Amino acid sequence: MPHVVTQSCCNDASCVHACPVNCIHPTPDEPDFATAEMLYIDPRTCVDCGACVSACPVGAIVPQHRLGDAQLPFLEINADFYGGAPRGEQPILAKVPPPLTVVQRPVPPRVAIVGSGPAAMYAADEVLTVPGARVDVYEKLPVPYGLARAGVAPDHQSTRRVVTQFDTIAAQPGFHLHAGVEVGRDISHEELLRHHHAVVYAVGASSDRRLEVEGAERAVSATEFVAWYNGHPDHAHRTFDLSHRRAVVIGNGNVALDVARVLIRDPGSLAATDISPAALAALRGSGIEEVMVVGRRGPAHSAFTLPELVGLANTPGLAVSAAEDELDLTGADESDHALRHKLRLLRELARRDVSGAARRITLRYLLTPERLTGDGVDFARNTLRVDDGRVSAVATGEVEHVEAGLVLTSIGYRALPVPGLPFDEASGTVPHTAGRVAGLAGSYVAGWIKRGPTGFIGTNKSCARETVSTLIQDYNEGRLTDPSADAADLESLLRSRRPDAVLGAAYA
Ligand SMILES: Cc1cc2nc3c(=O)[nH]c(=O)nc-3n(C[C@H](O)[C@H](O)[C@H](O)COP(=O)(O)OP(=O)(O)OC[C@H]3O[C@@H](n4cnc5c(N)ncnc54)[C@H](O)[C@@H]3O)c2cc1C
Ligand SMILES: NC(=O)c1ccc[n+]([C@@H]2O[C@H](COP(=O)([O-])OP(=O)(O)OC[C@H]3O[C@@H](n4cnc5c(N)ncnc54)[C@H](OP(=O)(O)O)[C@@H]3O)[C@@H](O)[C@H]2O)c1
Ligand code: SF4
Ligand code: SF4
C-alpha cells in the first residue's frame, strides 16, 4: 500500500531526495515544480519504505492505511497526478543539486542575512555547508522565523512544525541570531558590509495590496487580522466587529481561506492551538454564522490551492458551499490535474445544502467590490470573456449588495522598499540577477522580496539556494571584500545600539 502526500505539504522537496525509487514528483529540476500546488507520490512505484515520512518537516506524508477520513481525497489526488500522459523515463534517484564549491581564501565566507523567515533560514543553511562559514541573522522581531511562525494559521499546527527544522539549522556551528535588531534602524547596510563579505536581504513582504474603492478604509486587511490572531505584539490590542451574522472576505487566495476558517470554525477547536488568547476570547463571543469568500473572476481562477480547498471542505463542524450559478467554466483547462480536482470539488460543494448549518463558508465568484457602504459591500457582477486565449472579468452592469458587519480584504501582500536598495514599484520586488542586486556589490535578495509574495514555505528553499550559489560564485571570483572588523567588534556595536536585543544566540 503506497504512501500519500496530504494537505500540509509545503513543497520543500526534502522527501524527493529521501525516496530510494524516485516516485515523488515533480522534483525541483522538473519544469512543473515551480507551479505545483503540492508534491505527489506515484502509487505504482512506491515501495512503502517510509523514508519520506521522516524526511518531511511538516508530517504531510501518511501511509495509505493510516489516512484519516479528511485525508482520503488525497489518495486519488496523488494517484491521478500520474494517470495522464507518462512522465517519461525517470532516473533511479532524483537529481541532487550539486554542492557549493568554494575556493580557499584567507577569510571563510561571513554573511549577514536580514530577516529570519523561511528564505533567511534556508539561505543560512546553504551558506553553512561551507567549512568555517559564519552567518549572522538579523531579525527585527524578538522571535524568529517570519511568516512560518507569524503567518501560518494556528489550526495548521502540522505546518508550524517546520520551525523545528529551522531550530536545527539555527543550532549549527557558525549560526548567530540577533533577535530584536532592525537593519536600517539599529545597524546600517554599510556597517553590515564592514563585518561581512555580503548581505542577503530576506525581509519578506510586510505590507499588503490596498483596495482602491469608495469606503475601502472601512475594511480590515488580512495582514492585520492574521497578525491579531497570531499574537503579533503590534496588533494584540485590536478589536473587530464580530457581532453581525455575516462577514465578507474579498479575494480568494490561501490567506483568504485561512482568515475565513479561523473566523468561523468552532473556537473550541482552536483552544488547544497557540492562537492569541485575546483572539480566542473574541472568537468565542462572535455572532458570525457565515463567511462569504468572494473572487472577481471564475472558479478556474480561484487563487486558493487544491490541498487547502480539500482541507477547508473537511473542516469539522463547518459547512462549505459554492454558488452553483457562478461556476462559470469559460476558458478553464481541465487537463490541468490540480484544476480538474478543484473544479470537481467546487461542483460537489455547490450541490450541498448548507442552509441549516450554524457555521458556514460560501464561495462566491464573478463579483468585483465597487463600494464599501458601512453595512456591507456593493459588488459589480461580472461575466467572463476570452480574448486571445486570456480570460478576463467584464462587468455586466448589475450590482449586488451583500450585508456584512466585517469586511476583510485579502488581495495579496506587498513588499516595502528596502532603504538603499533599488525597488521595482510595479512588482514590489528588488531587481536582481539570480539573487544578486543590480549595481550594489555584496548585496543579495531571497524570498518574497526577490520573487514577490507568492509561493509556499518550501518554495523559498530553491530560491535561497539560487541566491547563495550566486553569492559563493562572487566570493570565489574575488568580487566580495573581506570584512574589516571582527565578531567582537560587531557584538559591541550591536550592544551599544540595542542593549535589550538577544544577540548571537542559537534560537531553540
Ligand atoms: C498569512 C500567511 C499564511 C501562510 N501560510 C502558509 C502555509 O500554511 N504553508 C506554506 O507553505 N506557506 C504559507 N505561507 C507562505 C509563506 O509563509 C511564505 O512563502 C514565506 O514566509 C516567505 O518567506 P520570506 O522569508 O521571504 O518572508 P517572511 O516569512 O515574511 O520573513 C521576513 C522576515 O524579515 C524580518 N524583517 C523585515 N525587515 C527587517 C529588517 N529591516 N531588519 C530585520 N528583520 C527584518 C521580518 O520580521 C520577518 O521575520 C503563508 C503566507 C501568509 C502571508
Ligand atoms: N497553506 C498554504 O499553503 C498557504 C497559506 C497562505 C498563503 N500561502 C501562499 O502565500 C501566497 C500569498 O497568498 P494570498 O492569498 O495573500 O495571495 P494570492 O494567492 O495572490 O491571492 C490574492 C487574491 O486577491 C485577489 N485580488 C487581487 N487584487 C484584487 C482587487 N483589487 N479586487 C479584488 N480581488 C483582488 C486575487 O484575484 P485575481 O486572481 O483575480 O487577481 C486573488 O484572488 C500565495 O502563494 C499562497 O499560496 C500558502
Ligand atoms: S514510502 Fe518510500 S518508496 Fe514510497 S514515496 Fe516514500 S520514500 Fe518513496
Ligand atoms: S512538505 Fe516537503 S517533504 Fe513533506 S511532502 Fe511536501 S515536499 Fe515532501
Automatic annotation (TrEMBL):
Its EC number is 1.18.1.2. Its cofactor is FAD. It catalyses: 2 reduced [2Fe-2S]-[ferredoxin] + NADP(+) + H(+) = 2 oxidized [2Fe-2S]-[ferredoxin] + NADPH. Gene3D superfamilies: 3.30.70.20, FAD/NAD(P)-binding domain (3.50.50.60), NAD(P)-binding Rossmann-like Domain (3.40.50.720). InterPro entries: 4Fe4S_Fe-S-bd (IPR017896), 4Fe4S_Fe_S_CS (IPR017900), FAD/NAD-bd_sf (IPR036188), FAD/NAD-binding_dom (IPR023753), Ferredox_Rdtase (IPR055275). Keywords: FAD, Flavoprotein, Iron, Iron-sulfur, Metal-binding, NADP, Oxidoreductase. Residues 1-29, 37-66 form the 4Fe-4S ferredoxin-type domain. It is an enzyme of class 1 (oxidoreductase). This is ferredoxin--NADP(+) reductase. The lineage of its organism: Bacteria, Bacillati, Actinomycetota, Actinomycetes, Streptosporangiales.
